[in-house]
Amino acid sequence: MQFTDTKSSKAMTTSFYKDVEFSDKSVVITAILESEFGKEIRIAFQNGQMMKEHKTKFPITVMTLRGCIEFSVGGEIYELCEGDMIALEGNVMHELKATKESIVRLSLHKSDTVQRVENVLKI
Q1: Architecture of 4-120 per CATH?
Q2: pTM of the prediction?
Q3: DSSP designation for 4
Q4: Domain residue extents for the chain
Q5: Using an 8 Å Cβ cutoff, are 49 and 102 in contact?
Q6: To the nearest 10°, the Cα dihedral for 121, 54, 98, 105?
Q7: What residues does 79 pair with on adjacent strands?
Q8: Mean pLDDT by 10 residues, the chain (123 residues)
């Protein structure tokens, strides 16, 4: 994890842009911050890379920090560009495809795991 404890035991800080890595081979998934109430994941896409259709039993929130992605859910495609967000309930099939180099923030429920997200790349 790439976070910094502050003087307050209740606060942590981090940067989604520090040490960003992209790969020609696959999407790069990095756990950025984990707290008692959730997890923040950075997903770095090269243009055209995707995370094939998948779901989680927990709710998620996805925000595009840089670039643009096509977020497919329920037969609809949502174009999410810088600053755009989408939230899903658990058990909803969805797929992500970068239409340009992109950095995406994935907010997970505290019971969800980074390993589950990484396993999506094996689908």
Answers
A1: Sandwich (2.60)
A2: 0.88
A3: E
A4: 4-120
A5: no
A6: -90
A7: 70
A8: 52 89 96 90 97 94 98 96 97 97 96 89 80
